[in-house]
Design brief:
The complex is a heterodimer of chains A (492) and B (571). Chain A has 492 residues and is an alpha/beta fold. Chain A has 15 helices and 14 strands. In chain A, the strands form 3 sheets. Chain A has an 8-stranded mixed β-sheet with strand order 9-8-7-10-11-14-12-13. Chain B is α/β, with parallel strands linked by helices. The longest helix of chain B has 26 residues. The chains are: A alpha/beta (492), B alpha/beta (571). At the A-B interface, strand 1, strand 5, strand 6, helix 4 and helix 5 of A face helix 1, helix 2, helix 7, helix 8 and helix 13 of B. Strand 12 of chain A pairs antiparallel with strand 13 of chain B, so a sheet runs across the interface. Chain B: Keywords: Methyltransferase, Nucleus, Transferase, tRNA processing. Chain B: This is tRNA (adenine(58)-N(1))-methyltransferase non-catalytic subunit TRM6. Chain B: It holds the Pfam family Gcd10p.
């Protein structure tokens, strides 16, 4: 089964993970399913209930990805035997509780009823990506977020065809991001086996020492169609190293890149060498450099890690931290004309407006004083209505309403309220290939070490070469003329 | 992956001065590294990457040059020794707790170094130990060396090493290195000051990845995966970064890790330039590669000029004027100009079909004339196919790093995306992106939906043809709103920056200086397909009631999912 993370196709389909996007940073992951044995209740089959309405899976399946889906009228009350209730009663529950994907389904046999559209409420159906998954996954441990993992994978040179070791699978956020980075075809792909050239398929070897977490990640991997691309091993890597299946004797993953999200990465480093001391096979790819990244929140961890890396001959050691923030964009409306408009600041927008306003106030109080004087003279005179009325902003209201609200004010940006000021320190290092005297000798035979030809300027040579190639091409075309002509005729 | 240095490949030398030098490694040539010396290229071909070498030679004998691999232990010697001595804390203290050595007595002039410039020059000519002898001599003849604190001694030594050590490290040339090279050593403006960390972010938010092998896909879905639309004004850096993520940047991508002892990959025969369309299978069953012919896992580049600028791809073996047919990008990188996209018939190459010449007549042509005929036919057919394909749309992602106004690109590019496809825009400055974010603000979405309803009611009174209604309404809406704000979900603006630290025993701190200039910002959103009919949003009615009770004077025209979002750009 293709994974919706990697090859989602154009439509949502049954038994695939889909994300129900409610708003930014809030999407509900759900496996699309018409019937489900889990729980009984809804007449419409499996239903996901959100704060924006209820969505029977029959309305979500086989839709183009990215579609806006309207909510349906679902009787959420009677299934619990409490008698028919209005939807609104249910909605009084805390929103978070509601959004936690209370999916329930009818029991035996009954064909699900067709869904009836509700009058309001919608969501967007999108295919899962590691980024969306990272924000919506069930947290089991601290999560490696997008700004960190994007940089880590880039620096680890995790590219299609790479094998990457991940220790500390945790909540699986990095697992999903790295499998996308190394993916270059499914292992079951028939074309790969037909291919005469052996093509190395990208793979993630994930290790987790917490048994339940390992099982949970494994289950997610299966649900997400990533079997064969991710291999989850329950293992204490400090003690037992990184060989697959069996600690000392298992096959080597032949990793090109390693990510260690462990409390004490220096304890795992002894296994990540070209020639392990205990004589077992090295988990590293012998034919390429190996890139390493460790992820530690404290400086002390970093110092110990780097000290160990130096002792173990890792090179290009560097340490960085990633500072990331999101930016909020809004229209800031300041001015006296924005009275009674929500979110606007009623304050003079410039000196002119302030002066005009103060003149008005001065004027008003002068008139008022005059009036009071007059009133002293003539006690019976009431305050004239023209003065009693505040100098309102009616005239300016008209001016402001010419511009639609979404264009009013000045466009400003600022950092979002909640800032992550520190996630972890990232240590990067490279271990080059092994290079023996023997390898060097072979290379010297192939490439004479002191041979330096006197080369003429390259450019004229390039042109000549071009001409020669062209001539050759023409000659060969002569030979293939008939074939080509036939094909052209077919084309036409 | 980079198993070993291949002949005629570009690679990078990291010099003791921290500078990077990019060079093509041609066999049987000499490689010059400025003041750090020169050496024959053959001595690094076939060797692994990331090794550091020292250039050794007996003065006067050109054939005596040899490279010595500097071991990791040697490179880390200093920190390992300090580490071993006193676990990091290497301030030597007096009995009263004050440091033994401070910089109190240091005289800040040149008189402390007893070697004259002439003597140093003479040393450089004679010495053989890859510069080590000079440094030893310099330290020896430094009068005030014993006054230096451990920190300043380390710094002094480092400074001299940078100047005199004949060392270099061989690095594979990849996107990450090229990005830093363009930023630090070359003109950063040419790549829009794009930083390495932002390339990572662009790739992730853009969901750029290998599309899987197409043969399998055909059985699953009719649509090939991994078709990306790109606007790139960084000279090809963004295209290179995407190609790297899609596994088609390096000419040897895919032909796997065969060891160099094995035979060199033979150049596939029968690959001569033949520009007629339709793959022709020759006797051996090999399918001819046609330029820009791939279906899945492709990049379609939209460019503003007649020719795209993909200069930087030359470092990865993709020469724009003379594209190697074995390079993966030959088939998988397609280029379409904005003119071809918006008004193809105004483009000469697209619109004017070269007349078809009957075979009989073709046979009488001289070979040069015949090949030029084939080339022209081929170019026309290719342009037709690529442009039509682009105009059909259905792309899986849109990545923009352009000097043009991003809003104007989105206006034409978003309709070409399939649903759920990510949109990512990079800009060195934040202002263009705040404007884009504003184009897709919640306030605008609400206004758009209200206005559409109004216009539809209006148009229904005037006409009964639904097509005409929708055409009229759309024209009016686009005039007022410029782009349809309901087609992009959760527009987000962000920036990221890495801070580099020095980690040495007892001397750990962030680097003191770094590069200023453009910060670099990323805009991201998801393409969605709004319903043809307006759907009222539902909120949590309890919350709505609460809010309305507080502010009875305020009413939103339509309630949105982000019930609290009036001016916030959430959705």
């Amino acid at each position: 089964m293709p994974s919706p993370f990697l090859t989602p196709g154009s439509h949502s389909s049954l038994d695939q993970l889909a994300l129900l996007h409610l708003r930014r940073d809030h999407a509900i992951p759900t496996v699309l399913c018409l019937h489900d044995e889990d729980n009984a209740g809804y007449k419409e089959g499996k239903v996901t209930t959100t704060r924006f309405g209820s969505f029977p899976h029959s309305t979500l399946t086989d839709q183009p990805w990215g579609s806006q889906i309207g909510a349906s009228k679902v009787d959420t009350g009677s299934r619990r035997g409490r008698g028919p209730q209005k939807k609104n009663h249910k909605l009084k529950r805390k929103a978070e509780e509601l959004d936690s994907a209370t999916t329930t389904t009818p029991g035996d046999g009954d064909a699900p009823q067709a869904a009836v559209a509700a009058s309001s409420g919608f969501l967007h159906l999108v295919y899962p990506t590691p980024e969306l998954w990272t924000t919506s996954l069930p947290h089991r441990t601290q999560v490696v977020y997008t700004p960190d993992y994007s940089y880590i994978l880039h620096r680890l040179r995790a590219r299609p065809g790479t094998t990457i070791i991940e220790a500390g699978a945790g909540s699986g956020s990095f697992t999903h991001a790295s499998v996308r980075a190394v993916f270059n075809g499914y292992p079951s792909d028939p074309s790969a086996s037909n291919n005469t050239k052996k093509r190395r398929l990208g793979k993630v070897c994930s290790f987790e020492f917490h048994e339940q977490r390992a099982a949970k990640v494994r289950q997610e991997i299966t649900e997400h169609g990533l079997d064969g691309l991710v291999e989850v091993t329950h293992r204490d890597v400090y003690r037992d190293g990184f060989l697959l299946q069996q600690p000392k004797t298992g096959p080597s993953p032949k990793a090109n890149a390693i990510f260690l999200d462990l409390p004490a990465p220096w304890l795992a480093l002894k296994h990540l060498v070209r020639h392990p001391a205990d004589g077992s096979e090295s988990p590293l790819d012998p034919s390429s450099p190996v890139y390493l990244c460790t992820f530690s929140p404290c400086l002390e961890q970093v110092q110990r890690t780097i000290s160990t890396l130096r002792q173990m001959s890792w090179l290009s050691i560097s340490m960085v931290e990633v500072n990331h923030h999101r930016i909020e964009v809004r229209r800031e409306r300041t001015g006296l004309e924005y009275e009674r408009i929500r979110g606007a600041v009623v304050f003079p927008k410039d000196v002119d407006e302030a002066v005009v306003r103060m003149r008005q106030v001065e004027d008003h109080s002068r008139k008022y004083r005059e009036l009071m004087l007059k009133m002293d003279d003539d006690e019976t005179t009431p305050i004239p209505p023209s003065l009693a009325k505040k100098t309102g902003p009616e005239d300016k209201d008209l001016a402001a309403s010419d511009i639609p609200t979404y264009k009013q004010g000045r466009l400003v940006h600022r950092s979002e309220q909640d800032l992550k000021t520190h996630t972890s320190y990232l240590v990067f290092a490279v271990l080059p290939r092994d290079w023996t005297e023997e390898d060097e000798r072979k290379c010297r035979e192939k490439w004479a070490p002191h041979q330096v030809d006197v080369v003429s300027n390259e450019k004229p040579k390039g042109k000549r070469q071009l001409k020669r190639e062209k001539k050759q091409a023409e000659e060969q075309q002569e030979g293939q003329k008939e074939e080509t002509a036939d094909a052209a005729a077919e084309n036409a | 992956m980079h198993p070993y240095v291949r002949p005629n490949q570009f690679l990078a030398f990291k010099l003791p001065s921290e500078q990077t030098r990019i060079q093509k490694i041609v066999p049987n040539t000499e490689i010059f590294l400025g003041k750090y010396g020169s050496f024959p290229a053959n001595q690094i071909i076939g060797r692994p990457f990331y090794l550091t070498y020292e250039i050794h030679e007996t003065p006067g004998d050109a054939n005596s040059k040899y490279l010595r691999i500097v071991t990791a232990a040697e490179l880390h010697a200093e920190s390992l020794i300090t580490d071993g001595e006193n676990d990091g804390d290497d301030l030597e203290l007096n009995e009263d707790g004050t440091p033994v050595r401070t910089n109190r007595e240091t005289v800040d002039d040149r008189s402390t170094q007893k070697l004259t410039l002439e003597e140093i020059e003479a040393l450089k000519k004679e010495s053989s130990g890859a510069g080590r002898a000079i440094i030893a001599k310099l330290l020896e003849s430094h009068q005030a060396l014993d006054q230096k604190t451990a920190f300043s001694l380390a710094k002094y030594k480092l400074r001299k090493e940078r100047k005199y050590m004949k060392r270099f490290t061989v690095m594979p040339l990849d996107v990450s290195l090229l990005t830093n090279y363009m930023l630090e050593d070359r003109e950063a403006a040419k790549t829009l000051e794009l930083r390495d960390e932002l390339i990572g972010l662009i790739g992730c938010w853009g969901n750029v990845h290998h599309g899987g092998s197409s043969s399998f896909e055909e059985t699953i879905a009719a649509r090939p995966n991994g078709r990306y639309l790109v606007v790139d004004d960084t000279g090809g850096l963004v295209v290179a970064a995407m190609a790297e993520r899609m596994g088609m940047l390096y000419p040897h991508d895919g032909d796997d890790e065969e060891e160099q002892d094995a035979a060199e990959p033979e150049v596939p025969e029968g690959e001569e330039r033949n520009e007629e369309e339709e793959p022709i299978t020759n006797a051996a069953g090999r399918v001819h590669r046609r330029q820009m012919s791939a279906q899945g896992n492709t990049i379609t580049l939209l460019h503003a000029n007649k020719q795209p600028n993909l200069n930087l791809l030359k470092y990865f073996g993709y020469e724009q004027d003379n594209i190697s047919e074995t390079h993966p990008l030959y088939t998988n990188l397609k280029t379409v100009s904005f003119l071809q996209l918006l008004d193809p018939n105004a483009d000469t190459i697209y619109a004017q079909e070269p007349p078809v010449v009957p075979d009989a007549e073709l046979a009488t042509y001289k070979s040069s004339k015949r090949s030029s005929y084939h080339r022209k036919r081929g170019r026309w057919m290719r342009t037709r196919r690529v442009v039509d394909e682009a105009r059909t749309g259905g792309f899986d992602g849109l990545i923009i790093a352009s000097m043009m106004d991003p809003g104007s690109i989105l206006k034409h590019a978003i309709p070409l995306l399939s649903g759920s496809a990510p949109v990512v825009i990079y800009s060195p400055t934040v202002e263009p992106l705040t404007e884009v974010t504003d184009l897709y603000s919640t306030a605008r979405k609400n206004a758009w939906m209200t206005r559409r309803r109004e216009l539809e009611e209006q148009a229904e009174q005037e006409s009964e043809d639904p097509e005409e209604i929708s055409r009229k309404v759309t024209a009016q809406l686009v005039e007022e709103f410029y782009v349809d704000p309901t087609t992009l979900l959760s527009p987000t603006l962000q920036t990221s920056r890495v801070r580099v630290w020095q980690v040495l025993p007892g001397r750990t701190h962030p680097l003191m200086s770094g590069r200023g200039g453009a910060e670099g910002y990323i805009f991201h959103g998801i393409r969605v397909i709004p319903r043809a009919v307006n759907i009222e949003a539902a909120g949590d009615p309890a919350r709505k009631r609460r809010r309305l009770a507080k502010q009875p004077e305020f009413e939103t025209p339509t309630e949105t999912p982000a019930a609290s979002g009036d001016v916030e750009m959430t959705s």
